Amino acid sequence: MPLFLNNDEVDQLITMKDTMEALEILYRELGAGAAVTAPRSDVHSPTAAAQNAEGPMAHYLKSMSGASPHFETAALRFSSDIVAWRHTGGGMRREKLPMLPGERWMGIILLFSSANGELLAIMNDGVLQRFRVGGANGVSTKYLARQDAENVGLIGSGWQAGTQVMAVCEARKIKKIKVFSPTKANRERFANETSAQVAVEIIPVDSYEAAVKDVDIVISSTNARKPFLGKWALSEGVHISAMQRDEFDDEALNACSPLIVHSHATENNVTSSALAHFEQDGFKLRDHPTARGIDWQSLPTLPDLLSGRVAGRENDQQITGFVNNIGMGAQFAAVGKKVYDAAKATGAGHEVPSEWFTQDVHP
């Protein structure tokens, strides 16, 4: 029978070490053409929640899928959100609003067996997606940062920043992390809580400049939709690890050699014409509306790097970079199988009847 696993259960079953190990296997599979991942689908449609909104709002239905022969699984991840775009002191920010009862969000992963098509598990997607994002950046750091890298500058102190810290500490022997985010209380709380989790000194600082000074790795972990880090943030030998494509500007990214992206896939974006009134002054109502001068399709991918088709760092002086430009559905097939196996081994989760999801007619 399929297992249902909520976020609390997934959090008890998953580790960053397991996540990065699964992703390394997956990226080599993708590099060989064995694993497959489908382009993400983004659907934006009108929402009644926008009646009195000060800025653009929409219902956002997102889906992504992929399969891994090594793990003998396929996965479908989907979410249903109300999203809003807001101007803040740091630029444009896109936010997913907790509109469900109890201020909650909707996100589900379906994990299938590729042996017989069986539904193995239904999982909340929050914790697993957080780990697979951090894990992707962690794998890139393992292959691109200097071997002696030990000091990190982190921009961002939200929930996603926590797994970025876990991943960089898994990839390198980190001694100190400086963190900056615009709200002082947030960065101080993050430093206190996360330092205890990873047993590494984390120091809150008062500016972007202070965070990136004298570090070996710069990590950006924000929801920015407009670049805010330039070449001034880079020093000789540094590795930059971007969680979003719209955090470092074109000049900074072009200074990286190599500059690796997660995938050449792009969103299949469909937006209702009823939302056209929001699209003014060049703004596009989509996940990443900012036009860039970067030709993402010309850049090598993380599967290219792990498959040896492109060289990584070759000396301690070069600046290297990774941009987690878009997620892959196949990540959920790989990391989801790790979670499922751990759940079966420990008896975690709740079984649900198979009959709820099977049928005796062929559609």
Structural domains: how many = 2
* Bulk shape: globular
Mean pLDDT: 93
Topology pattern, helix = H, strand = E: EHHEEEEEEEHEHEHEHEEHEEHEHE
Structural class: alpha/beta
- CATH fold node name of the largest domain: ornithine cyclodeaminase, domain 1
Distance between the termini: 22 Å
Would you write up a description of this structure?
With 363 residues, the chain is of the alpha/beta class. The protein has two domains: 3-129 and 328-355, ornithine cyclodeaminase, domain 1 (2-Layer Sandwich); 144-264 and 290-323, Rossmann fold. It is 28% helix and 26% strand. The protein contains nine helices and 17 strands. Strands 1, 2, 3, 4, 5, 6, 7, 8, 15 and 17 form a ten-stranded mixed sheet that branches. Strands 11-10-9-12-13-16-14 form a seven-stranded parallel sheet. Strand 7 (106-113) and strand 8 form a beta hairpin. Helix 3 runs parallel beside helix 4 (159-171). The longest helix has 19 residues, at 126-144. The mean pLDDT is 93.
Q: How do you describe this structure in short?
A:
With 363 residues, the chain is an alpha/beta fold. It has helices spanning 7-13, 16-32, 126-144, 159-171, 184-198, 208-212, 250-254, 302-306, 330-346; strands at 3-5, 36-37, 41-45, 57-68, 73-88, 91-97, 106-113, 119-124, 151-155, 176-180, 201-204, 217-220, 239-242, 259-261, 268-271, 320-323, 350-351.
Topology:
Layout: E1 3-5, H1 7-13, H2 16-32, E2 36-37, E3 41-45, E4 57-68, E5 73-88, E6 91-97, E7 106-113, E8 119-124, H3 126-144, E9 151-155, H4 159-171, E10 176-180, H5 184-198, E11 201-204, H6 208-212, E12 217-220, E13 239-242, H7 250-254, E14 259-261, E15 268-271, H8 302-306, E16 320-323, H9 330-346, E17 350-351
Parallel strand pairs: 1-8, 3-15, 9-10, 9-12, 10-11, 12-13, 13-16, 14-16
Antiparallel strand pairs: 1-17, 2-4, 3-4, 4-5, 5-6, 5-7, 7-8
Helix pairs in contact: 2-3, 2-9, 3-4, 4-5
